[in-house]
Design brief:
The protein has one domain: 3-Layer(aba) Sandwich (Aminopeptidase), CATH 3.40.630.30. 19% of the residues lie in helices and 33% in strands. It has helices at residues 19-26, 92-106, 121-126, and strands spanning 8-12, 46-52, 55-64, 75-83, 111-117, 130-131, 137-138, 145-152. Strand 2 and strand 3 form a beta hairpin. The radius of gyration is 15 Å and the shape is globular.
Length: 153
Amino acid sequence: MSEPFDILHVERVHPTALHELRRRVLRSDNPDISVADPRDEEDTAVHFAGFLGDRLVVSASFYPSTPPMNPQLATYQLRYMATDFDVQGCGYGAVVLEVAEAELRGLGAQQLWANGRGTALGFYRATGWSTVPGSEHLSPETQLPHKVIFKIL
């Protein structure tokens, strides 16, 4: 378990650095399920990692995207937001989002959107995201309940 005085360091990383955490947390550690997005290697994709010391504990990737709401706004889609199991609830995911949002604003982003897992909606609401009414769906990748969420920057 992480100590309360641990300081999270956030940096941009190559997407492959995030694959192991993505797989373990978001895909039940199943080696047969892909954790790569076709847009991962695009120059416009932005990948963030949160580290406690040299241990990767949070991942978040952002891709320019036409959103299902407010299409007139410059928007990035969040995918593969994952926080390692033993540090969930410690605020590290919120720190990564805060750093990412500041950098994305600098790139001209006006809005973020994602397909938020039902189990993570409380986290997203607490960090300023809103849900799109009537957007409930099962993820084709995980078959878990999701809702479309967004945040105006």
